[in-house]
What we know:
A: four-stranded antiparallel β-sheet
Amino acid sequence: MSDALPVVEVEGLVRRFGELTAVDGVSFEVRRGEIFGFLGPNGAGKSTTIKILATLLEPTAGRAAIAGHDVVREPLRVREAIGIIFQDNSLDDRLTADQNLYIHSLLYDLPRDVYRARADALLEMVDLTERRKGLVRTYSGGMRRRLEIARGLLHRPEVLFLDEPTVGLDPQTRSAMWQHVLRVRDEGNVTVFMTTHYLDEAEHCDRIAIIDHGRVVALGSPEELKRQVGGDVMVVGASAAEDVARDIGERYCVDVTRADDGLRFQVDDGATFIPRLTADFQGRISSVSVHRPTLDDVFLKLTGRAIREEEATSKDQLRMVARAFGRGRRR
Amino acid sequence: MRPARVAKVVYAIWYRETVRFARERTRWLGMITQPLFYLVLVGYGISSSMAFRQAPSGPGVSYLAFMYPGILGMSILFMSLFSAIGIIWDREFGFLKEVLVAPAPRWAAAAGKALGIATVVTLQTTVLLLLAPIAHVALGAAMVVETLAVAAAIGFTLGCLGILVAGRMQSLESFQLVMNVMTLPMFFLSGALYPLTGLPGWLSALAHVDPLTYGVDALRNVIYQDGPMRALVQYPVGVDLAVLGAAAIVLAMAAAWSFETQRS
Lengths: 331, 264
């Protein structure tokens, strides 16, 4: 297959659950060898899309193909071509790392010698060689994720799906995870498709699709998307926020958005704008800050809402607890 | 799908089931203590306070001896349904997804699970044969082999029943419900604790559709091949095995369907 063909093709994908439309006409393509990110708040339709691509869920309408195979008509071919790391751990924690990999090799029909050589190399790559004979339930959250990556790559998939790969991990482990993901892409020659609601993670991607309410609202490299915002982002604090917002909008012809941290709007050059603003609004504003646009600003501009970065949903918190306690509640 | 490919998938799930079982010491402990409690606490209690009216006369005849094959059947029932329920845990906590996204036929995974359950049940029955002296049952080589074979057959059949149910259940909450509405009636109606001959018609009808009835009767057939206890065997062993075999085939197909079409 030529490198020029997209490895993931999605066209007009729709998935409804009764009245709810979780995925509402999503189209995009993922190029071979890139790290492609799906960025959006919880409930935006990211996991549903991944489930459709992984053949676990049928689309209501539209089509999707991976490595040229249609996800509805050729599910087995698609499953051979993909590796998946789910949001929730799918290892058997009552078995060792080796045993988990061995079962995977049987399910994917790998010859024994191929499995042995690859398992050694992959465990080395994710730094688990020394713990390979240890029960997974004794692993930390980060170790489990690394083992899942090794397992997901064991059958040499063309696309590796990562569904919220770092939810529930501490910041240090998160950044280590990213080193591993980048290495996987470079050494394993794999296309990486990931979902995240962490903005700093989306920055690592080659291209991202921003998804909201089941629709792709923007698609491009992080730099391209940030350029859409244009100029610098001003954040202004004011007690009479409503009046100040209206006056700023009228005086400078800008769109002012009220966010949690203050009034936000964009200007071409923040550094020279600050003195003008402070002179014009003397006594009416309490603080001014300026920053280069972030993906959060992109999201805010496109949807009028912010993706709050560290906002953990109750389910995420449960996951963290589950990981911290090694899921000891299982029988 | 090549047969070797299918065999690998069956083996993968069988391997997981047996390795996990071998490692869990608490299950080994529970597996021995529960039947022991039934035999000693229930068996002695009942036989010392009530007359066993249907018992024939002769040496070695006692309620305990009658109950022993029933307790084997009970242990097999609990173990196989409990193991099959593991599918719901796997769905809740992840491992099932590993199986469902693999390019492997799901029915083969279900078959591996059922065979794994049959293996675990056979190991369990081997251990429980050590309790035979309590029930004054004399063990012989042929009898042991036949008992284990029947145990494996019951385990496979009930394992398929468990997979059928687990494939349809969505939540852990339903676990308790199913354990109560399925396990206990199946156990009590199987003739494990009392002969089914004197039952009222409607209860007797229910007992006849309980696959464990034929399993327990098959166990009595092979454990009491001669002597006075044979009077308490209900059917010829051929009938027991034929019904069990038919149930196994039907339930295996239903289990494969249920596992194949489950929601992920």
